[in-house]
Design brief:
By secondary structure, the protein is an all-alpha fold. It contains eight helices and no strands. Helix 2 (about 25-35) runs antiparallel to helix 3.
């Protein structure tokens, strides 16, 4: 970003989307509650690598390719919805975990995190809007792309770790077998709702 004001404006622009209970944030909360913060870090890193990479590619010219294939957004949305449904199903399957089993099992890793973020068609569309507002023709495109991608990644990390630690805190306060089942059910149902919304938008848009 060329000035601190630009950085502030970017933060204010993306804050409602990045810090609201979207699919990636809900998955962070679920992972924190089910596996704890430390074991969920690879999942968060996978998501935020896929914040940085698409942002940098869009900023350096990949957006022109996406504009020539507008239907790609809709297919990405549908694919992302299906993947989120799959993760919601995995959370539901773990709803029988007892208190002493909360940190057992295979935690989601880099790949799952990367897939969640990569299949976020809404996120790709947002990147086009961001670069349309903050592009600076007077500076090298790679430098502007790098600055914006780095800023978005930092904002995203802050959001994801907030939800991750919140989910872990909730699990430690309410960690009876019944409470674990209720938490997993709530997370899964919220994700199903998000996935259905994404799928509907993808079908309508196509």
């Amino acid at each position: 970003m060329s000035t601190p004001t630009d950085l502030l404006l970017l933060f204010l622009m993306v804050f409602p989307l990045m810090f609201s209970p979207g699919p990636s944030n809900l998955l962070c909360a679920a992972a924190g509650g089910r596996f704890g913060v430390a074991r969920s870090i690879p999942f968060v890193i996978g998501m935020d690598v896929m914040v940085f990479v698409p942002a940098f590619l869009v900023g350096t010219g990949f957006s022109s390719v996406l504009k020539r294939v507008p239907d790609a957004f809709h297919y990405i949305q549908i694919a992302g919805a299906l993947f989120i449904l799959f993760l919601a199903w995995k959370i539901l399957r773990s709803s029988e975990a007892a208190e002493d089993q909360r940190l057992q099992g295979a935690a989601p890793g880099l790949f799952e995190g990367a897939m969640v973020q990569l299949l976020n068609g809404k996120g790709l569309a947002l990147l086009l809007v961001i670069f349309s507002q903050f592009a600076d023709p007077g500076r090298p495109s790679w430098r502007v792309a790098l600055e914006i991608a780095a800023a978005l990644t930092i904002f995203s990390l802050a959001s994801h770790f907030s939800w991750l630690t919140g989910g872990a805190w909730l699990a430690t306060r309410f960690n009876s077998p019944k409470a674990v089942r209720i938490q997993n059910l709530v997370y899964a149902l919220l994700l199903v709702g998000v996935a259905l919304s994404l799928a509907i938008m993808g079908v309508i848009g196509s």
